[in-house]
Specification:
The complex is a heterodimer.
Chain A lengths: L7 H5 L5 H8 L4 E5 L6 E8 H23 L8 H20 L7 H17 L7 H8 L13 H34 L7 H42 L7 H42 L4
Antiparallel strand pairs in A: 1-2
Helix pairs in contact in A: 3-5, 4-5, 5-9, 7-8, 7-9, 8-9
Chain B lengths: L24 H23 L4 H23 L3
Helix pairs in contact in B: 1-2
Classes of the chains: A mainly alpha, B mainly alpha.
């Protein structure tokens, strides 16, 4: 557990550095239109380099492992890892078959990509909170937030992509007229058309937002709890008090880690399954 | 392992895929209120009618969210 090691800012200011410690860990490595003092984005062209880097790193890992497994498939004598990958594929394809009404060859690969990518991005949360930022500060990188899904930009980007697909397939399956009809007559019938338009627009836009906020909220909160647990030992490791606080920290950290393992899997699963459901609703005539 | 416990073991009247929407009832309600306010805010900035549309759209989002949640939940009631 590398959690005990405090960042330099917190260390210098002693016990009062807890706020700095947490703020430091929740600050992205921002380039472009960023505030020079708070390091928060202050314009459109602000890029969170750490989020982008780890997101693509994990995507590359999935592609690489998929390619390695794909090039060494053995139907007669599958290796342990091949069995594991087949189990995941089987799980996702069963899920798609159960929840998706029509036939669309894009859905299962999309669901698998979302599940694996979100799960692995979430999994970065289980790496000790101080380990990678400390290594990075050794290399001269001042801020590093390693979990891409604790950045609203990642989750919103994914859910907006799903939303674009939903709109695309709604237009394709229902036709532009059928799609517009849904907006005109949906909750209150034909006498409240202006209200219906506003309400259905709100309802449709709420789908991607709730997808994004659920994932972001769960992971952000989880990360924060890891930081707070890291602070228990971190601020008090000097002197005899450490004998009490350190075991407490280890127990709490382990407990939260095991519980969080469930959370990250469930959140990845929910994101995947709701994507399938929303796309399935786009494919059916009745709304 | 499909987590069946999330929506109980009742018989479902509608197609099974709708059951998963229940996972998102709470956040969908919250998101509808937020979207209502943000949409109203954006339109207000455009039409310079602040705070009229923000208030109306916020209320509509809230009402719509409750209606939607009630509709989704009453299928299994």
């Amino acid at each position: 557990m590398g959690d005990r090691v405090l960042s330099e800012a917190a260390h210098n200011s002693g016990g009062g550095g807890t706020v700095e410690y947490i703020q430091h860990h929740l600050t992205n490595l921002c380039v472009g239109d960023c505030d020079p003092v708070t390091h928060q984005a202050s314009g459109f062209w602000a890029l969170h380099l750490d989020t982008i880097f780890f997101g693509y790193l994990i995507a590359a890992l999935i592609v690489f492992v998929g390619w390695r497994v794909g090039s060494s498939l053995n139907p007669d004598k599958p290796s342990g890892f091949q069995n594991f990958v087949e189990m995941i594929l089987d799980f996702v394809s069963t899920q798609v078959k159960d929840t998706f009404p029509g036939h669309n060859p894009l859905i299962a690969p999309l669901a698998l990509t979302i599940f694996l990518w979100v799960f692995l991005m979430n999994f970065m949360d289980l790496i000790p909170v101080d380990l990678l930022p400390m290594l990075a500060s050794g290399l001269g990188i001042p801020y590093l937030k390693v979990v891409p899904t604790t950045d609203l930009n990642t989750t919103l980007a994914m859910s907006l992509t799903v939303f674009a697909l939903v709109v695309f397939y709604s237009l394709k399956v229902k036709g532009p007229v059928g799609y517009l009809k849904m907006f005109l007559f949906h909750p209150f019938g034909k006498f409240f058309i202006p209200v219906n338009i506003v309400m259905t627009t709100i309802e449709e836009l709420a789908k991607p937002l709730s997808l994004a906020l659920r994932l972001f909220g769960n992971l952000f909160a989880g990360e924060l709890v890891f930081l707070l647990i890291a602070l228990i030992g971190g601020t008090l490791t000097v002197g005899a008090a450490a004998l009490f606080w350190f075991p407490l920290q280890v127990v709490l950290d382990l407990g939260w880690l095991i519980f969080h393992l469930l959370v990250i899997t469930l959140q990845a699963f929910i994101f995947m399954v709701l994507t399938i459901v929303y796309l399935g609703m786009a494919h059916t005539e009745e709304h | 392992m499909p987590p069946v416990f999330l929506f109980g073991a009742r018989t479902m009247k509608s197609p099974p895929q709708m059951g998963w929407l229940l996972v998102g009832v709470g956040s969908h309600l919250a998101a509808m209120v937020i979207v209502g306010f943000v949409l109203g805010y954006a339109l207000d900035a455009w039409l310079e009618t602040r705070p009229l549309l923000m208030f109306i759209f916020g209320c509509l989002g809230f009402v719509g969210g409750i209606l939607k949640a009630h509709k989704m939940l009453s299928r299994w009631g």
